[in-house]
């Protein structure tokens, strides 16, 4: 009887542990169902018809303002791990000067590229000093010119010194 109780407790704890690892899916942007798939026809549709079908774009082109981007993505989070993008769909609609659709391109996650971000740390020249070297580095290194020399000191106003 005690063995069955411990076995049931072990199964319950294992089930609770496994269910806690279910991924959490988050959708960003508007997701179309297959029956609602918007058809945008180049040379027929205009800005107004695209706006009526798809709504406001997620973003517009930085340098080409005549391109609208509709972005949707699904991200998966699992416990403490960094979220991963499972699916991405980008519809790029370009317009000509008259406001008519010129091209429609669709991009997926496979079309993306990995970009290496800067580590936001400015490299410095010279050697790295430890904390103790920084703290005790100038002990015993006072400039002799400071005590009556005629030379300009660093950080001073420059130019010749005047005798007072």
TrEMBL record:
The lineage of its organism: Bacteria, Pseudomonadati, Pseudomonadota, Alphaproteobacteria, Maricaulales. GO terms for cellular component: Bam protein complex. GO terms for biological process: Gram-negative-bacterium-type cell outer membrane assembly; protein insertion into membrane. Residues 155-164 have a biased composition (Gly residues). The keyword Nuclease does not apply. Pfam families: BamE. Coiled coil: none annotated. One of its GO terms (molecular function) is protein-macromolecule adaptor activity. Residues 142-164 are annotated as: Disordered. Residues 44-102 form the Outer membrane protein assembly factor BamE domain. It comes from Maricaulis virginensis. Keywords: Cell outer membrane, Membrane, Signal. Residues 1-20 form the signal peptide. This is Outer membrane protein assembly factor BamE.
């Amino acid at each position: 009887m005690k063995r069955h109780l411990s076995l049931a407790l072990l199964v319950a704890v294992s089930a609770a542990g496994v269910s806690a690892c279910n991924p959490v899916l988050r959708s960003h942007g508007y997701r179309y169902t297959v029956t609602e798939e918007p058809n945008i026809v180049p040379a027929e549709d205009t800005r107004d018809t695209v706006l009526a079908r798809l709504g406001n774009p997620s973003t517009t082109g930085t340098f080409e303002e005549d391109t609208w981007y509709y972005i949707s993505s699904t991200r998966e989070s699992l416990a403490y791990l960094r979220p991963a993008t499972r699916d991405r769909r980008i519809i790029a609609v370009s317009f000509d000067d008259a406001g008519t659709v010129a091209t429609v391109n669709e991009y997926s996650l496979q079309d993306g590229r990995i970009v290496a971000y800067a580590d936001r740390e400015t490299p410095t020249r010279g050697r790295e000093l430890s904390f103790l070297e920084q703290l005790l580095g100038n002990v015993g290194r006072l400039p002799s010119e400071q005590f009556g020399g005629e030379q300009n000191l660093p950080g001073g106003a420059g130019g010749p010194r005047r005798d007072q």
